Amino acid sequence: MTLDLFAQPAGKEIIAPGACLLRGLALARESAIWQALQSVIAQAPLRHMQTPGGLTMSVAMSNCGPLGWVSDRQGYRYQALDPLSQQPWPAMPAEFMALAQQAAILAGFADFTPDACLINQYAVGAKLSLHQDKDERDQSHPIVSVSLGLPATFQFGGLQRSDKLLRTELQHGDVVVWGGPSRLRYHGILPLKSGTFSYMGTYRYNLTFRRAS
Ligand code: MD6
Ligand code: FE
Predict the structure, then answer these.
(1) Is the CB of 104 inside a 6 Å radius of any atom of ligand 1?
(2) For 117, which of 78, 100, 104, 193 is 20 to 30 Å away at the CA?
(3) pLDDT tens digits, residue range 58-88?
(4) What is the per-residue DSSP string for 125-156?
(5) Does residue 7 belong to any structural domain of this protein?
(6) Residue 41 belongs to what domain range?
(7) Which range among 29-43, 78-92, 105-119, 186-200 shows the weakest confidence by mean pLDDT?
(8) How far does residue 3's CA lie from ligand 1's centre (Å)?
(9) Is the CB of 208 within 6 Å of ligand 1?
(10) Which of 137, 127, 143 has its CA nearest to residue 207?
(11) Which atom in ligand 1 lies closest to the alpha carbon of residue 188?
């Protein structure tokens, strides 16, 4: 009998079938990731989008890559142009792509080439209500989620909104890969607690890499 469990890379926690947490995976590239993030948000500023129902989201968002996720009174969608500038979103930085592909491979998704990266910035008190990610055309691709800055509580449930929620703390550098039978699980982020995190200040940032088209 072979003990395949022991062949997993250190720090890989299976959180559900098709979903895993790679603790600290982004740390090896953190300064390059941080510099690339600054460059992206200088070109496409973080902004608070409107929900289709007319509420203002507490999380500030931007995007990079060929497609960007947007929300407004017309609904949720991916589009090639930043609605603020009517220009294409900034290119996906090479360091972002390399991290997303490394994480997907470690999670068992060998040919993941994201065409969208949604950037979320959480100030203290900002939250993301329970939702499913279902605006992407082909849901056989996973999502790779990178947490930077202040820690936050990620909650994840099942395929029904009413399913029991599990909670886990996501720390600076942690990467979650979410696909296969877990791809449509409900999930959210609890209101960010105050704290300070060295050079990223009083925010949490999350990068979610998706194959949208
Ligand atoms: C966040 N993340 O961590 C929000 N979605 O700020 C998500 O909504 C998310 O982390 C799908 C898969 C992984 C995620
Ligand atoms: Fe999500």
Answers:
(1) no
(2) 193
(3) 999 999 999 999 999 999 999 999 999 999 9
(4) T--EEEE----SS-TTS-EEEEEEES-EEEEE
(5) no
(6) 13-210
(7) 186-200
(8) 31
(9) yes
(10) 143
(11) 8
